[in-house]
Design a protein that fits this description.
Structural class: mainly alpha
Strand content: under 5%
Number of strands: 0
Order of helices and strands: HHHHH
Radius of gyration: 21 Å
Largest sheet: none
Distance between the termini: 33 Å
Helix content: 55-70%
Number of helices: 5
């Protein structure tokens, strides 16, 4: 069934809110984890088991690392750039090379947020957190504070991953409680 957007009488979109996006991400991650684990089906059975049942649930660890991968890449590039700026100055790390390096450090964490800002604007949510974070970090770049722009977006992205993981865990806990009901 195809999704149809719903709007109120003033034309504000009622569906596809930020909470729904977070819930969708958490649901997809939960389903992916259940599909990757050999003992669990996509829809878990009523049988409840723990980590001491003689099998491994390590695939959720892998999916967590994948969620943090853009932040790890960005952090590595940022630390190298800060090292070149302050601790191991290089003659070649000036001008456009420096700017490009910081843009590359910004890209893994910044461009997905800018994309979400554009999508939220098209849905009528003009002052979303995505737009505000984009304005703040692009503004930092505009005034030449490249490390700060990358760092702010990096911290924001890591916070978003932790939020998604918390929602995912809460949903899994609620589901296991519901599955334990008589």
């Amino acid at each position: 069934m195809k999704h149809v957007h719903t709007f109120d009488k003033d034309g504000k979109q009622l569906c596809c809110t930020q909470e729904e996006k977070i819930n969708l991400l958490a649901n997809n991650a939960l389903k992916r984890d259940h599909q990757e684990v050999g003992c669990c089906a996509a829809e878990p059975t009523k049988e409840v088991h723990g980590d001491d049942d003689g099998h491994d649930h390590s695939s959720s660890y892998v999916s967590t690392i994948v969620m943090f991968l853009p932040a790890m890449i960005s952090l590595l590039l940022l630390l190298i750039a800060i090292g070149f700026d302050h601790y191991f100055p290089q003659d070649w790390f000036t001008g456009w090379v420096r700017i490009v390096w910081y843009v590359l450090a910004y890209a893994p964490v910044g461009f997905p947020v800018i994309k979400e800002a554009i999508i939220s604007i098209t849905k009528g949510e003009i002052f979303s957190e995505f737009l505000l974070m984009s304005i703040a970090t692009v503004g930092a770049f505009a005034i030449g504070e490249y490390p700060e722009g990358v760092a702010v977006m990096l911290f924001y992205s890591v916070g978003e991953v932790f939020q998604t993981l918390a929602v995912k865990r809460a949903k899994a806990n609620i589901k296991s409680l519901l599955d334990q009901r008589p």
